[in-house]
Amino acid sequence: MKKLLCILSLALTTSFAFAQDETSETTPLEITGSGDIYYKYDFAKVPNIPTSFATDQNSVSLGMLDIALKKKIKNISFVGEISFGPRGQYQSLPNGDGSTSNADNSFHIQNLYASYAVTDKLSLTAGYMGTFIGYEVISPVGNFHYSTSYLFTNGPFQNAGVKANYAITEKFGAMLGVFNDSWNTYKADSQKGLNAVGGQLSYVTDKASAYLNFMDGSVSGTIVDLTATFQLTDKFKLGLNAADFSNEGDVGYTGGALYPSYAISDAFALGVRAEYFKSKEGSLDTDVTAFTLSGNYKINGLTIIPEFRLDSNSDEVMFVDSDLAPAKSASQVLIALVYGF
């Protein structure tokens, strides 16, 4: 997949042959990362769209500074990733007690795990990992759009546990793992422990990739998720994400999103995210259709992202207008500067 966290994970799960290659037993320490800032204006004049990040109204604001480290020695690989700033701290990462309080947040680790290549096809990974579920990620260098989808916001961000990846063929792969009882925490309930099981089937070629994911646990609930990317022509790419989540009390959601994008030139591309998201009976009454139009203008490592977003709900329960009265829709514009290194 296209995203930074998945690039780190994919390097561990699909390139096992290098662990057996004597000419590449040890790699230099690899350092990558990103930094981003943004300006957003909501036409209701207050923060209005309840998805992750880009929440500040009428302000030049911080996203995150993200630094990822990777090292391989023979058949052992290590990945550590830390982040600073609202997007990489209290808006996405929990403290030790699982809270995401702005004032108290001091936990900066996005990823911290090690992998052991048992054979050229099988690897074992343990630690605190960016989730394998979903199309979008926390770091904006991995996303075409700067604001995020409802599917991303309501799905897992991280999963701590142990997993095994197996390369069935050059194109097909499988993963099975056990994870902490709850999403987004590195510390499980001591009575429940590794209470969730998750898995993935993958298909990857030069022109297409698809990942069928699931996770099930008595605390975390049950989520089934499909992500795919198709490079239909040299200039036109299509991505998709569909998911269904359920938990006790009929709590949950179902939804899907399409991500078409077109490269107008080597430096500039336009893309749309068209999403439908509906909550289940025990959840907040959410029935949203959201359209996001974004541009990506790249100058060396810098990406400039102008964006317009329009979200509509079937009832007046989510949004407000400029008089703070209930409204069925919300719209915003933003411009973000994202630098990757």
UniProtKB/TrEMBL annotation:
Keyword Repeat recorded: no
Q: Which InterPro entries match?
A: BBP2, Porin_dom_sf
Q: Which UniProt keywords apply?
A: Signal
The signal peptide here is: 1-19
The answer, when asked if Transmembrane is one of the entry's keywords, is: no
- Spell out the protein name for this chain: Beta-barrel porin-2, OmpL-like. bbp2
Source organism per UniProt: Flavobacterium limi
